[in-house]
Design goal:
- It is built from 10 helices and 15 strands.
- With 350 residues, the chain is of the alpha+beta class.
- It folds into 2 domains: 214 residues, 3-Layer(aba) Sandwich (Trna Endonuclease, Chain: A, domain 1), CATH 3.40.1350.10; 121 residues.
- α7 packs parallel to α10.
- It is elongated and about 90 Å long.
- The chain starts with a strand and ends in a 5-residue tail after the last strand.
- The model has no long low-confidence stretch (mean pLDDT 89).
Length: 350
């Protein structure tokens, strides 16, 4: 978007230019930004420039900083019109510095201060910036943020950054576009990812997405169990099949259906679908299909899986988190102590 100057009640357009045309190199921008880093990364203290402190690598971080939350900040600067592959480069840097300790950062900051003729005590300077009275290693560098500053960003780079941010990373893209006029060169600095006016909303969406992803991950039924009842052992049961097997055994032994339901409901609300008559699998499936097409997949309704009790037919849900299935099965076992139920988890997560 062009920039205009108001002059004599007229809009005078600034001409877009390039860093190359202005004889500005990346190192020039780096030197300007390190003393005014808030222009692209608010509340950040620069602790190193051209940082390289790892073996077998000539790669250097343009600017290394720390923010008020004690998160490390990797800052990469480009003058290209697409950003190149700077997001991949910055990810490598973030991984390489993620293990820095506070003492190591004090050493790094001390070297930076010395090179810049600053006699500030590095540890005191860091503590003062963070507002700490003493080191708090448990709070230090729990996250690494990335700031990418470039004249422009390609669609591919923007897509990659937004996708990575959806997985909990904190990557900011800041566009630095030069303009010229007879009064000199001007620099427009604008955060393009995340959009400032939508940042809070995007954070909420990201948290919601990550929560949903974790729920989906937890719902994958990969656990395996071995259930023994009265000496009869059944192995390689998934979580849902394990709780169904235990529930079926308890009901077949004549335990009150109300007690069974109240026990399971402590860990799984509305665990049964109930039809007020005795029906078979086909009729049960038709009833569920009349509600929605996917409803039959949610319940145990095949041959031998339904529970006909007191003139009604009960179907147990298949939708179980492993930990909830374990707790429900253990409660049934402990509630009906006269029954011989032994449950063992047999997969590698035991």
């Amino acid at each position: 978007m062009p920039i205009y100057r108001i002059q004599d009640k007229q809009l005078v357009k600034f001409d877009e230019t390039t860093f190359k045309d202005q004889n500005l190199k990346e190192i020039d921008l780096q030197k300007m930004l390190k003393s005014q880093i808030n222009a692209i990364s608010p509340d950040t203290l620069i602790v190193s420039e051209e940082f390289r402190d790892w073996e077998d690598s000539k790669k250097r971080i343009d600017l290394l900083g720390i923010d008020k939350d004690a998160s490390l900040v990797v800052i990469e600067i480009k003058i290209t019109t697409d950003g190149g592959y700077m997001e991949l480069q910055a990810l490598r840097y973030a991984a390489m510095i993620s293990t820095l300790t506070f003492d190591k950062l004090v050493e790094i900051y001390g070297t930076y201060l010395q090179k810049n003729g600053n006699e500030t005590n590095p540890e005191e300077g860091l503590l003062d910036f963070l507002g700490w009275d003493d080191q708090r290693e448990e709070e230090f560098a729990q996250d690494v943020r990335i700031v990418l500053a470039s004249a422009e960003f390609s669609k591919e780079l923007c897509t990659s950054v937004m996708w990575l941010n959806d997985f909990g990373l904190d990557i900011r893209c800041v566009r630095m576009k030069p303009y010229e006029s007879k009064d000199g060169t001007f620099l427009e600095i604008q955060t393009v990812i995340p959009l400032p006016e939508a940042e809070e909303y995007q954070v909420k969406i990201r948290e919601k997405t990550m929560k949903e992803r974790e729920i989906r991950k937890r719902s994958r039924d990969t656990a395996r169990f071995e259930v023994t009842t009265e000496g009869d052992q059944i192995s390689n049961l998934s979580s849902r099949k394990m709780i169904h097997h235990v529930t079926k055994y308890v009901i077949l032994k004549g335990k009150p259906i109300g007690d069974v339901i109240s026990s399971i409901e402590q860990f799984k609300p509305n665990p049964f679908y109930v039809i007020d008559s005795i029906v078979g699998p086909d009729e049960y499936r038709d009833k569920l299909l009349s509600i929605s097409e996917d409803r039959p997949r949610r319940y145990f309704i095949d041959d031998g899986e339904l529970f006909p009790v007191d003139g009604k037919t009960y179907a147990l849900t298949k939708n179980w988190f492993t930990e909830d299935a374990i707790k429900a099965a253990e409660l049934l076992s402990s509630k009906f102590t006269d029954l011989d139920i032994v449950i063992n988890r047999t997969d590698s997560k035991t």
